[in-house]
Design goal:
The chain is an alpha+beta fold. The chain has 10 helices and 12 strands.
């Protein structure tokens, strides 16, 4: 994808600086210091272990350090998601016959392209947000992950809320005209399924007869249209392309949906932390960021599912088993997959290290807003979709699994 530099007038620049839905200060503001501040993300910790000789990474002739990296970060193989659109720094190596594999857990995402020179890793620092690294794909006795702030050319934008972050793109079909260029948009749990996964393989049953996955991005001009036919169904991808080197034959629909939710949730948490550190107090701007985070946390604007969703890789079972659970065995990781993504409408990312690291003043504000909604004090229209049973269940799960709730929750 081409990056277009836009020259804006002074008036337009001033207008952008007033945007209230994204961070507008420099990433190297003294309160943030993204480029040179201390880092405490999982990759920094693993690099320190490698430096001390406390751990090693095994190299595989087929996929390099991929398997060892996933094991080191406890990233499940079942999370494998395959994208074949040219939306990566390694775009020239990516195609429907050689898709990029993405693996993830709550704090780390790993990107692997067969035959590429590097492995890509994005890790969430509790205070600094997502930090990007590469690992050379060649056998050595001293492998090290190298920080790559050049990734911010794409991973710091309005789509990531003005902070270094993650995104899942759906790509529109384009003609094979050499002058044509790719276009698309970011998706998350608010996006209708019919608009998702352009440029991705999707295995499993989709809850809809149509989405944008499993079809070529580049087509003849005569074929260029919004899909109206049922989307091709795949249980596995090993009959679609040569899967040698890939860790599984899946690109699981449930993993994709969880990844989409998690990317925007991660960006919201980072943005709220940065806004608070810059302001130093609960300004109206910070309060608006609190509202944005809580609404997304509670899936207020989630696009409804239209049928049963079924993955193929075992990711759903793996993810649901992680917990934590309350005394009744309930967890915010339990999946619904019939009418909505989660059984209980509150994001499991409320347990993430980044959420826990939010400044105390703004975490208290988040909990206050959560209480207003979950207790039924706020009965405005956006929250009517949260039933009394849902609110009560989320409150009870939080009481049983979170130790830092304010007295109001008790």
């Amino acid at each position: 994808m081409a990056l277009l530099a836009l020259a804006v007038s002074g008036a337009a620049a001033a207008a952008l600086a007033q945007r209230r839905d994204a961070f507008v200060e420099s990433r190297d503001h003294p309160a943030v210091m993204y480029s040179k501040g201390a880092t405490h993300d999982p990759v920094a910790a693993l690099n320190a272990q490698l430096e001390r000789g406390a751990t090693r990474l095994a190299f595989d002739a087929t996929n390099g350090y991929l398997a060892a990296t996933l094991e080191a970060f406890k990233v499940p193989r079942q999370s494998q998601s395959l994208v074949f659109s040219h939306t990566s720094a390694q775009a020239e190596r990516i195609s429907p016959q050689n898709p990029r594999a993405v693996y993830f857990n709550d704090t780390v995402a790993v990107g692997w392209v067969r035959g590429a020179d590097v492995l890509e890793v994005a890790a969430e620092d509790p205070a600094q947000g997502v930090i990007f690294y590469t690992l050379d794909q060649k056998a050595t006795t001293a492998p090290r992950f190298k920080r790559q702030d050049g990734c911010l050319q794409c991973h710091l934008s309005w789509d990531t809320l003005g902070v270094p972050g993650l995104m899942v793109l759906t790509t529109f079909q384009m003609t094979d005209d050499p002058n044509a260029y790719a276009s698309g948009f970011t998706v998350d749990h608010r996006s209708p399924l019919e608009d998702r996964w352009g440029g991705w393989y999707v295995t499993g049953t989709g809850g809809t007869r149509r989405h944008r996955g499993n079809v070529p991005v580049v087509v003849k001009a005569s074929q260029l249209r919004k899909p109206t036919d049922p989307t091709p169904h795949l249980d596995v991808v090993d009959k679609t392309f040569d899967t040698r080197g890939y860790l599984t034959p899946y690109s699981d629909i449930v993993a994709l949906m969880v990844l989409e939710h998690q990317t925007h949730m991660t960006n919201l948490i980072t943005r709220l932390g940065w806004e608070t550190r810059v302001a130093g107090r609960l300004t109206p701007r910070v309060q608006e960021a609190v509202g944005d985070l809580v609404d997304y946390l509670l899936f207020v604007d989630e696009a409804p599912l239209t049928g049963r969703l079924q993955g193929t890789s075992g990711f759903a079972e793996y993810f649901s088993a992680l917990g934590p659970r309350d005394s009744s065995g309930r967890s915010l990781r339990q999946l619904d997959l019939t009418n909505r993504l989660m059984r209980y409408p509150c994001s499991y990312m409320i347990y993430s290290p980044a959420f826990e690291a939010l400044p105390a003043v703004v975490k208290d504000a988040v909990y206050k807003r959560l209480w207003e909604i979950l207790s039924g004090s706020d009965t405005s229209k956006p929250y009517m979709r949260l039933t009394a049973a849902d609110r009560r269940a989320v409150l009870e799960i939080l009481r049983g699994t979170k130790t830092d709730l304010p007295p109001s929750f008790r």
